[in-house]
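FIELD: query
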Amino acid sequence: MSRTPQAEQGIRALRSSLMIAILTGGSVYLIRGRAFPPHGNPLVYSLAISWLISITIAILSSAIFFRVNPRLFSLAQWEKQGEIYDRAGIRAFRWVVLRSPLGWINANFHLRVSRADCDRLLRETNSSEAVHWLTFVVSVMLAISYLRHDHAVYGWVMLLVRIPFDLYPIMLQRWNRGRVQRVLQRPAHTALR
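FIELD: result
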């Protein structure tokens, strides 16, 4: 028995909502309802605070970034073929994301079979990249404040957490954008196979 595309989308949306609720509830529980001063295990604290910052930024800004001019997120010439991201190990990161519950967070990152859907997917990647950039900036500022105010371990761990939770997702969005743009540059009859 196969599912309809609408049923698949509904399942992805439900799975996404549950994943967001679990991560948010778990993060609030792990920091014991108070964010400052940092306390407990530095890695657990950094992951929990990072998630709460990220989900707050996503809720407040992703709809805005979805409507932003796509040229703001255009790729540099050296990025278009994706070789730089391949050297950084982005395919391995993508493999992990696709095979873990982290891939469930955004239900809109699935391509349906149409050229118009490629435009939607490009806007989704733009929005996601912008959310990760904002999360990166806010988290780095918080980490620097921890470094300056006698919470150095928390600051360093917070900075290290930025690599898999912001920098690699930014690179993944840019790599995917190059792939989608290459599909759109093909003649219409061979665009999606």
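FIELD: remark
The helical segments are 5-30, 42-66, 83-87, 90-98, 115-148, 152-185.
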